[in-house]
Amino acid sequence: MADQDVKLADLFERLVDEGGDLLQAEVRIAEAKIARRLQLARLPLGLFSASAALAFVALMGLATAFVVLLGPLVGFLLAVVIVTLATAAASWLLFVEARKRLEVVIEAPSLLLRSRSEK
Question: Where, by residue number, does the polypeptide cross the bilayer (predicted)?
Fold first, then answer.
């Protein structure tokens, strides 16, 4: 009976060791997959960044056109203020909408929620 207990203990110890090795191998595989996906995403993310920069330039040109259009009607200083406030309002609305949609996707940690509710 004692011999069986020793064999059982050895088997259990081997199972724990091999389970740990398997877990480490799974972590390495997951890290490799993530690294590969990040590597593949570099070019598309660079293209998105360039697209966003060009869109920003286009929006600045459009804002300038609105200022030039409104300038003779209300004065150039007031035209700049009007266009700036309109674009700031649009930016704020987009920000609020994006934040609402992200809050649905990304849950805040429960610890953070508890500390906010206690205040």
Answer: 45-70, 76-96
Rg (CA), the chain: 29
**H helix intervals, 75-109:** 76-105
pLDDT in single tens digits along all 119 residues of the chain: 566 666 878 888 888 888 888 899 999 999 999 999 989 889 998 999 999 999 999 999 999 999 999 999 999 999 999 999 999 999 999 999 998 888 877 776 655 555 555 55
18 vs 2: CA distance, rounded Å: 24
DSSP-based three-state secondary structure for 51: helix
Q: How many CB atoms are closer than 10 A to CB 26?
A: 10
